[in-house]
Amino acid sequence: MAKKDNQKKTSGGLKYLRGLLLKKMVKGGAKELRTNADEVNKLNVFPVPDGDTGDNMRMTIESGLTAIENIDSDDLAEIMRALSHGMLLGARGNSGVILSQFFAGISKGLETEQRADPTVLGRAFEMGVQQAYSSVVTPTEGTILTVAREAVEFATSRITPKSTIRTFFSDLVNEMHRSLERTPELLAALKEAGVVDSGGAGLFYIMDGFNRALNGKEVPDAPDESAKAPEAPAAAAPTSFAFDKDSVMTYGYCTEFLLQLQTSKTDIDAFDLEALKTFLGEHGDSIVAFLIDSIVKVHVHTFTPEIVLGHCRKFGEFLTVKIENMSLQHTELGENAPGAPEKAPEAPTAPKKPYGVVAVCSGVGIEALYTELGTDVVIRGGQTHNPSTSEFLEAFATINAEHIFVFPNNGNILMAAQQASELYENAKVHVMECKSVATGYAVLSCLDINNPNVDDNLAAMNDELSRVTAGFVSPAIRDAQMNGVTVHTGDTIGIIGKEIVVSDPSRVNAACALATAMLALPEKFMLTVFCGEDAPMAEREELEKRLREEHSDAEIYFIDGGQEIYPYLLAAE
């Protein structure tokens, strides 16, 4: 990764960081990561087309930026608090969650500071590192954690009475770049793949953008943006809508907002969320409302958004507000047209049931299978489309159950699901550590909704989780030499866990070799193959024929999954 040209230490007498300057820096950081997101995505250990770290971190920091855009305060603590909450709700992917926790720790360190000098800022960044590390069950060096820690240690060690905010960030970003370049020496998988850590790269770009904005340097746009057609002249004000002066307001307004509770308006510790839900129910439907720390997130369909907003403002101030005319959308676009806002499921009204299920998956066939197995809410997502913490929270809020089982079905979604489970208070949430829809399908099959003993169900599902092995077939996007396997661009590779076990020019050959490797594992006699949208029928039939011939003693099932990216997902039991 090329070092940025603005990393020279700058001088200047800026002794304090304040809220409005931080807001400007966040904009710079978000813009620089947006410019370089594709580069970060490509820093993938496996040579497969599923890199999404750059996009996940970009959406995480942009969620924070959205939360502060309409705040004009120069109070550093206020801006930092809103930024942290926005990132927490918008966190996607493991690197996005770690990034949100890093900023949450910084926010704690600045929670009483209207402004911060380098010493205070350094302590806050140290708290950010501590919280980022604590968010990971088994911290791994050579990742974003190392890049954050080493940079903060270096920057704080150089603070003197003469230090300024500019010298602090210059030291921070310089060492962050050096630390990033060292990550392959700490993590063998990076060295073997010939890449630096993608999460660390994302953090570097964000902080480099902070530093650029701090020093008044414009962050360049993404290269492809300059190639776009010139922007069309602004359209004249519309003279007509499908919803006109004679139309009838039939569907009301889709109203969403984040409300920051204020100590000057309410007792935050005693705030009654259920009373708010009751009020919302009197004035609308499709209600989702939950409280995280001192911020309330609300979604409601109502004919009187002014009444809802007026009532809620008694308790605090809005961080974001969105109101959309659903009658206009129904008339112009149709209920299911692209661009129409998704409806939130109706708020639960029936008595609580013992169990609820939330699963992340994509593909018509896979979604149907999960629904048949009793999934209450399917969050559409997976590799390259990781749902946010907020999406999990909204899903939980629509299920009226004592216990909610969550199937992330992707290793990069696991932390967002766990973060949401820790924030949600209206049910006991159990995150099953499934890293593939194929694994999740087998584990969910063990849930007995008629058994009231949750521990029995957890034991059965975790036992199945320990027994099932997942594998996937993918096209190779670059040459590589990994785990003793030579990979050529355009080959098809088969992966079990974190190891490439086969690479072959023929997709059927690769899939057969992968299946053979999986069935050779101890006590494996059943194989389920989920066929993706890019697997043609003739190829599926050839694969099925060969597998049945080569493994006549195994139980083999083929399922039309319809998933993207991976033509075949496999589960061996």
Broad structural category: alpha/beta
The CATH class name of the largest domain reads: Mainly Alpha
H/I helix tally: 19
Overall strand count: 16
Q: Outline, from the CA principal axes? A: globular
Tell me the number of structural domains: 4
Portion in beta strands: 15-25%
Radius of gyration, in angstroms, nearest whole number: 25 Å
Calculate the mean pLDDT score and round it. 87
Name given to the CATH homologous superfamily of the largest domain: DhaL domain
Give the uncertain stretches in residue-range form: 5-11, 224-241, 331-347
Architecture (CATH level 2) name of the largest domain = Alpha Horseshoe
Largest beta sheet, briefly? 6 strands, mixed
Strands ordered across the widest β-sheet = 13-12-9-16-14-15
Provide the helix percentage: 40-55%
- What fold name goes in the CATH topology slot of the largest domain? Serine Threonine Protein Phosphatase 5, Tetratricopeptide repeat
Report the span from N to C terminus. 42 Å
